[in-house]
Amino acid sequence: MRTIYGINPLREALRSATARRIKTIYIYREREDRAIKEIEEVATGLGIDIERVEKERIGSIAGGSSHQGVVALVKGGFPYREPEDILDVWRASGDRAFILLLDSIEDPVNLGSIVRSAHCAGIHGIIIPRRRACHVTPVVVKSSAGATEHTPIALATNLTGVARLLKDEGIWVVGLEADTETPIYRVDLTMDIALVVGGEAKGIRRLLRQECDILCHIPMRGRLNSLNAAQASTIALFEALRQRMG
């Protein structure tokens, strides 16, 4: 059983395949507004149980205080895909490949923000490591504003092997690294690409970096010389979208 809390995440869950697995929605007894009424109406139409409870009960289920007065219990864990499933999504789309590999992102807020940006940029799917990385938690779902419920996310034992698989499919692997010579604005991102973003502490790990066909950086000015993973991902994703909309 997993939880989804917050207005936007729950609204998006009700619009996705996740809705079929929602067991119960708990709503703060005294909250009455348009957003809550919308959730109640949709949930009732889908035959989902709704319970009005005290705020403390919601906080206990959600495991925190940022629930906005609503939390849902969902049967089963998060529905992860396999890397091959992401390829199927790409092929079915008829578009140029647009895949995101996240190497050891450990902060759940960063991961959620990245998923939100990736979904808005039109990504075919995201692939993350099974080990030494943050997975999809309630915090990630909340930070993504519910984008996790619409975005294919796969777990991989070995991202280096995934990079080789993608290259065998004719997809260019583009790594985002600060200490490289080529600015991202000089890279053709209209090709079939898999964008690689490294973790907050160490960036892209060595073996995965060696598999990248292109390494590029985001040019910056000012006294700070780095962006966090979520900011860097968003810039790169929307640069790719800008070029593709060209």
How does this structure look, described?
This protein is of the alpha/beta class and 246 residues long. The chain has two domains: 2-74, 60s Ribosomal Protein L30, Chain: A (2-Layer Sandwich); 83-245, Alpha/beta knot (3-Layer(aba) Sandwich), CATH 3.40.1280.10. 37% of the residues lie in helices and 20% in strands. It has nine helices and ten strands. It has helices at residues 7-14, 34-45, 55-62, 83-93, 108-121, 138-143, 159-168, 206-211, 229-245, and strands at 2-5, 22-28, 49-53, 70-74, 98-103, 125-129, 153-156, 172-176, 193-198, 214-216. The protein has a six-stranded parallel beta sheet, with helices on both faces. The chain has a four-stranded mixed beta sheet with strand order 1-4-2-3, with helices on both faces. Helix 6 (138-143) links the parallel strand 6 (125-129) and strand 7 (153-156). Helix 1 (7-14) runs parallel beside helix 2 and helix 5 (108-121) packs parallel to helix 9.
